[in-house]
Amino acid sequence: MAQGLTGTREAVRDTPENPAQQYALQLRDVWLRLGREVILRGVDLDVMVGEGVTLLGENGAGKTTLLRLLATVFGPTRGEGRVMGFDMKDTRSVRDFIHLMPVDGALYPDLTCVENLEFALQMHGQTGDISAVLERVNLTHAAGRRVRYLSAGMRKRLALARAFLLARPLTLVDEPFANLDDAGRKLVLELLGELRAEKQVTLIVAAHEPELAKRLAPRTLRLGAGKLVEE
Ligand SMILES: Nc1ncnc2c1ncn2[C@@H]1O[C@H](COP(=O)(O)OP(=O)(O)OP(=O)(O)O)[C@@H](O)[C@H]1O
């Protein structure tokens, strides 16, 4: 039987002696039902701070759903979890530490590239060099263009720029290589790689390109039939 998490303290960031602090994620016997479908069937997971995890699985396996659960979009139907030391039920605290980069980027279509990045920084009370990051993802020429007029690959690059700029301690990335050309895929490896190497960001990457994703996040887990197994 899975060992519960009860007993670990709430605000681990305030208690450096607490061993739970080394975990970015802990899930115990997590089940998730959405409508009639049971997507997760007793998932256990421990991820250390700074680790990079690639999440594999067939279409419809539940990778996006698991990332959304970690981002507290859904609560578990059964089981328990802690994200950056906080109980997942404490969604406000958890959300202070995470960024979810969804497959479609989740950008504001009527805002320009610069405005999207300014807004993201503002929401998190952060500052950052927007021009520099736009240059890195080769979007300087489109800085003032509304997102609705960008190509799919350009949107992906902008979403990547936002994840890089925010550098949240736990960054959840859904299919970062989708819609990108070779140079774009290289940028994903570079920028997300830097987040891990230089900012100790914990990365969870759902992808269908295992070889690429493993360069970024070497530990590989496969989701199938609602279960998560190490590869
Ligand atoms: N909000 C929702 N309500 C009901 N069912 C949902 C919801 N979101 C996802 N699902 C279902 O959950 C299952 C897993 O979907 P999910 O998008 O997580 O898979 P995935 O592994 O990310 O797939 P892909 O590789 O195709 O992106 C699917 O059967 C989907 O229909």
TrEMBL record:
This is ATP-binding cassette domain-containing protein. The lineage of its organism: Bacteria, Thermotogati, Deinococcota, Deinococci, Deinococcales. Keywords: ATP-binding, Nucleotide-binding, Transport. PROSITE patterns: ABC_TRANSPORTER_1, ABC_TRANSPORTER_2. Residues 25-231 form the ABC transporter domain. One of its GO terms (molecular function) is ATP binding.
